[in-house]
Hints:
- Residues 198-331 form the Fructose-1-6-bisphosphatase class 1 C-terminal domain.
- By secondary structure, the protein is α+β, with helices and mostly antiparallel strands.
- The chain contains seven helices and 15 strands.
- It has two domains: 6-193, 2-Layer Sandwich (Fructose-1,6-Bisphosphatase, Chain A, domain 1); 204-332, D-Maltodextrin-Binding Protein, domain 2, CATH 3.40.190.
- The protein has helices at 6-14, 24-46, 68-82, 217-228, 246-256, 277-290, 321-332, and strands at 55-59, 65-67, 87-92, 99-100, 109-117, 128-136, 157-163, 167-172, 177-183, 188-193, 204-206, 239-240, 259-262, 294-296, 316-319.
- Helix 1 (6-14) runs antiparallel to helix 2 (24-46), helix 2 runs antiparallel to helix 3 (68-82) and helix 4 crosses helix 7.
- It is globular, with a radius of gyration of 19 Å.
Amino acid sequence: MTRTNLSDFLNVCTTKQGKGGIDAAMVVLIEAMADTCRHISANIHKGALAGILGSAGTENVQGETQKQLDVIANDMLLESLAQTGVVAGMASEELDDCSPVRGCEDRPYLVLFDPLDGSSNIDVNVSIGTIFSVLQNPENGLITNESFLQAGHTQVAAGYVVYGPQTQMVLTFGDGVYGFTLDREAAEFVLTAERMQISEDTKEFAINMSNQRHWYAPVQKYIEELLMGKTGPRGKDFNMRWIASMVADVHRVLTRGGIFMYPKDQRDPSKPGKLRLMYEANPMSFLVEQAGGTACDAETRILDIEPLDLHQRCSVVLGSANEVNRVLSYHQTA
Length: 334
Ligand code: AHG
Ligand code: MN
Ligand code: MN
Ligand code: MN
């Protein structure tokens, strides 16, 4: 079997015209992203030995206590992407406002990232990840927060790295989804999954059941029917998984199908869900659609939401198309 590493793969993409085709600047960007994530992975691998576990004692703009690794991963990505020569600015879960690369407003790309996804799992040695979304720089002067407020369907690349039993990078440029596994000895990512596909049907769902009492009626009805199993209206048994790292839960959906939900609920009407549109929901929705799945906020396609704020939240329902469409229909008839 011939071995294709990430660089080989990116080179082939530069020869494609149109869908899935990329330029030399994108190659540099993705190589830098992969290399930084390889270093983040090495830190995670050492854990307590590297003294990187536990809280940083600070809060981010969303009022979450930052873990040391949230801050370390964020700083590593900011530094390495600024040095690529192709990134004009970055925005992150861990920054109040965007971080323009001073004097480089004419560079072609903007990057949004969730540097460390699944923070609550860091200290318990459960899979975590990094999520990223690449946008074209609108190149209309200074880089401000507004420069990043582009709908998800304009993304030119999206991906994540999952730090699990294996470290894997999953990537799309708008022509299918490709998975790479980190070979630590060779210090490179190797292509291990081509054109990943999410099955239309599934018997597996992911939701944080502890929020059940807060859900709106359509979500209550949908989950209740799944839980009734074979003797209920769905006529089959469903299994449940909740890792509490979006990257790991979505990776499972991309690998063996499923539906993943983090719906808005009745607790705080000013918070439409927990997950963030720009650096969690949008990149994951791009990947899911490219793998033949569906992604919505229970009412509309996530990739069509016009963003108003860097850190805005949204409901997320994604994965196997027939299940996601059922959730949509329950909301339409409510
Ligand atoms: P982050 O660690 O980047 O703040 O994201 C956490 C998110 C997401 O990864 C996961 O799906 C969800 O929070 C878990 O929420 P619960 O704590 O409600 O399970
Ligand atoms: Mn967080
Ligand atoms: Mn996250
Ligand atoms: Mn995070």
